[in-house]
Amino acid sequence: MSKVPKAVRKELAALAAKPESEINLSDLPATTAKDWRGAARGQFYRPIKQQLTIRIDADVLAWLKAQGKGYQSRLNEILRTAMVGKPRHR
Question: Residue 84's closest CA among 47, 51, 39, 58?
Fold first, then answer.
């Protein structure tokens, strides 16, 4: 946000500080299901990454790398799918 002019940053901060009840939305048209067709939830969401050291079997790492660039992202996607799709074991 450093490239945003100081005046704009000040205005955005003032708007962010306002409670929703004070924001006038009367000039905004209502949306319909047609307006949201093709929308994708979370498309621009980028979770915070954390650097760590992890040991992975050599054959698993070779398999991930053999698929081309982005093996760390693929590994993360595999882990997230497992996390979301399966019940937690205790």
Answer: 47
> How far, in Å, CA of 64 to CA of 78, rounded?
10
Instruction: Give the tokens for residue 10.
Output: 């000040």
The HSE-up count of residue 90 (CA atoms within 13 Å, CB side) is 0
Which tokens in the block code for residue 67?
Answer: 């698929």
Spatial separation of the C-alpha atoms in residues 20 and 78, rounded to whole Å: 39
Q: Using an 8 Å Cβ cutoff, are 64 and 74 in contact?
A: yes
Residue type, 70: G
Q: What's the whole-model pTM score? A: 0.48
Could you give the CA distance from residue 65 to residue 75 in angstroms, rounded to a whole number? 10
Span 38-65, pLDDT tens digits = 998 888 888 889 999 999 999 999 999 9
- Give the Cα separation of 57 and 64 in Å (integer): 11
